[in-house]
Amino acid sequence: MQQIESLIGKFLSGEADTAEKAEVTQWLSESEENKVVFQQIKNFWEESHENLTKVEQSSWQKLANHIDLSESGIKETPVIPIQKDSKAYLYWAAAIAFILTSVFLFWNANQIQSTNNVANLIESKADYGSKVNIRLVDGTQVKLNSGSKLTYPEEFTGVERRVTLTGEAFFEVAKNAKMPFIINTGNINTTVLGTSFNVQASGENEVRVAVLTGKVKVADTLNQQEVFLLPEDLAIVQTANGNITKTKFDAALEFGWKDGKLVFKEASLKEVLIQLEKWFGFTFEKSTDFNEPTSHDYYSVFQNESLTNVMQNLSHTFDFKYQIDYQNKKVLLMN
Asked: What is the CATH code of the structural domain delimited by 121-253?
């Protein structure tokens, strides 16, 4: 792999070819730390890009203030005048940002570890078969769907309120115009000031954001795509390429779960079973000779129904038999 700072420079300047973009994507997928580093580089690069005559001393100083350069082994880099049409500027900006950010993250991680081993972060989980209500320190209300996880700080400091979501959650964000609320789901950032909306990042291929009230910005930081959403808008982000589709949503499908409604529309049996595993916390198994239907035409709404009632409806629609093992929390599907 080429030096990552050079690749990132090409990536940010739009000069990377397909292979080089793939290398950056691979590097980002290797760890959460790499994603944080990339975002820091991107922020630094964008700030410096406002003045193409030099890599601004102010941008260097912001990061250097956090680092004892004499002990870090990095010498202060002089300001280098660059002509506007020089591609070298882009590579220098990214390279400097990469070096500084890496040292800053290393220094900051050590500082955090020395004062608080858990970095003041809280992790809340909703196991399969359960849902969890969370009230954040700023007054924001969050409802986690089954099989989901939210990581957030004990206190929000700085210029933003940032949390990390895996799975699905409904947010009612407390208003604070000076401190945007950001939900991170992989490469996708959802940014708001104060609003209510649903974020679903349960699948491997897409992230869905549906807005009930207020205004939301959804951005793919890797592919540099973004869209603004208003009430009744739905954004579907393809995580592989960053393509964002903006459309209207079915309220029952997007928000029904938080009110105890299990909603299916044009669903296959496979899709239904995935939802039922999370909803009830049961494992679904199939007999060796089970012929799974391939149709995608299952429509149904269940309001606080038991597993038995749901399975009776499902088996009648798809024409199969089943056995429920309540002790081991398993369901066996048979022809």
From this structure: 2.60.120.1440
Tell me how far the alpha carbon of residue 217 is from its chain's centroid: 13
Predicted TM-score (pTM) above 0.85: no
Q: Which residue has the higher pLDDT, 36 or 197?
A: 197
Q: Output the pLDDT for position 100.
A: 47
pLDDT for the residue numbered 202: 75
Q: Give the phi and the psi of residue 287 in degrees, each rounded to 5.
A: -65, 160
> Using an 8 Å Cβ cutoff, are 121 and 87 in contact?
no
> What single-letter DSSP state applies at residue 179?
S
* All residues at 6 or more sequence positions from 289 whose CB lies less than 8 Å from its CB, including other chains: 335
Main-chain phi, psi angles of 94, to 5 degrees: -70, -40
In the chain, what are the domain boundaries? 4-115, 121-253, 260-334
Q: What is the DSSP letter of 155?
A: S
- The pLDDT tens digits of the residues spanning 278-287 come to 999 999 999 9
| Total H helices, total E strands in the chain | 9, 18
61: left (phi over 0), alpha (psi -120 to 50) or beta: alpha
pLDDT tens readout for residues 248-264 = 999 998 999 999 999 99
Q: With 90 as the cut, is the pLDDT of residue 326 above it?
A: yes
pLDDT of 80 above 50:
no
Fold of 260-334: Phage tail protein beta-alpha-beta fold (3.55.50)
Question: 105-112 contacts: CB < 8 A, separation 24 or more?
Answer: 105/33, 105/36, 105/37, 105/40, 107/66, 107/67, 107/68, 107/72, 108/66
Which residues, other chains included, contact 103 with Cβ-Cβ below 8 Å and sequence gap of 6+? 67, 72, 74
**Residue 168 CB neighbours (<10 A):** 25
Contact 142, 169 (CB under 8 A): yes
More confident: 71 or 144: 144
What is the structure's pLDDT at 162? 93
